[in-house]
Amino acid sequence: MNGQPLTDQAAPLRLGTRRSALAMAQSGMVAREVTRVTGRPVELVEITTYGDVSREALAQIGGTGVFVSALRDALLEGRIDFAVHSLKDLPTAAPEGLVLAAVPEREDVRDALVSHEGLGLEELTEKLAGAGRETRIGTGSPRRAAQLNAWAAAHGASVVTTPIRGNVDTRIGFVASGELDAVVLAAAGLNRLGRAGEISRHLDPELMLPAPGQGALAIECTGADTALAAALATLDHAPTRVAVTAERALLAALEAGCSAPVGALATWHPGSGDGPPELQLEGVVGTVDGATLLKMSANGPLVLDETAGQQAQALGHALAARLLAAGASTLMGERAR
Ligand SMILES: NCc1[nH]cc(CCC(=O)O)c1CC(=O)O
């Protein structure tokens, strides 16, 4: 064999990551997996992204990869060997010069409520209504606000959604301090931080469709090191990759960014008889005040072969076309073209 010199093989691989507790936790998990499949040590290289330093509301700055661009620059400049992102923070446009080497198996896709006294939405709003006041729920996400407000309207509950930002401690801190009655966070994040015990209730996707790609990670590299790309590819989980492909195709076709009030969830179901499994894609678009929620689903048999990605994209595009025909773009607000 005349592969790379031994010293290179033994050199640590450089994993680029954001420095938040959540990013470090999920990057640490990926690092252990990469060491397992390559036999090489992995060192974490902390990169500060614009999303980490800007105090602007995400709804204002989001949609253009504010958590991602600095990591991609580091990849393209050769300062790191691969990057780990939360898939839901990745813009849908494929970046020049980079490959999505792997989408590992997804964590819990659901959003979670962390509330005063651990109450569920119904009990919480009823209790506070009894005390003569509205329920204040913190979330910086228009998608979550839209669906919370729609739930409140349907249940005759008085809910006020308040934009918040910050890391998990900051957000949960608003509930602990009594400033807010509840906050909504991704269950996957709390699980990966070992803080699942702080979840009061998981929100059923019926009530709260997650963000496209929620709960999944993305491992990105340049592909120049083909041996590394091949090793990373062994961490790919095809059912997850195909599901998030459908969700992201829907998002892309709606021309919505990660900060738009759009939810999507693709789930696998057994096919009929001997047929292939079915991929079901649900999508929601709404107004932040929850006055209108447009919710639709599409499904189709899908074989997990080399055309699976295209089939999933077609499913996402078809659902987007139906949502747009029903007026989705008006709901999301006029977009620059
Ligand atoms: N927008 C920030 C972000 N990106 C990914 C997650 C959670 C983890 C995941 O979805 O994989 C979070 C925090 C949150 O939504 O509570």
Automatic annotation (TrEMBL):
Its cofactor is dipyrromethane. Binds 1 dipyrromethane group covalently. The modification S-(dipyrrolylmethanemethyl)cysteine is found at residue 258. Residues 13-228 form the Porphobilinogen deaminase N-terminal domain. Residues 243-324 form the Porphobilinogen deaminase C-terminal domain. It catalyses: 4 porphobilinogen + H2O = hydroxymethylbilane + 4 NH4(+). It holds the Pfam family Porphobil_deamC. The keyword Phosphoprotein does not apply. GO terms for cellular component: cytoplasm. GO terms for biological process: protoporphyrinogen IX biosynthetic process. Transmembrane segments: none annotated. Keywords: Porphyrin biosynthesis, Transferase. Tetrapolymerization of the monopyrrole PBG into the hydroxymethylbilane pre-uroporphyrinogen in several discrete steps. Monomer. This is Porphobilinogen deaminase. It comes from Kitasatospora indigofera.
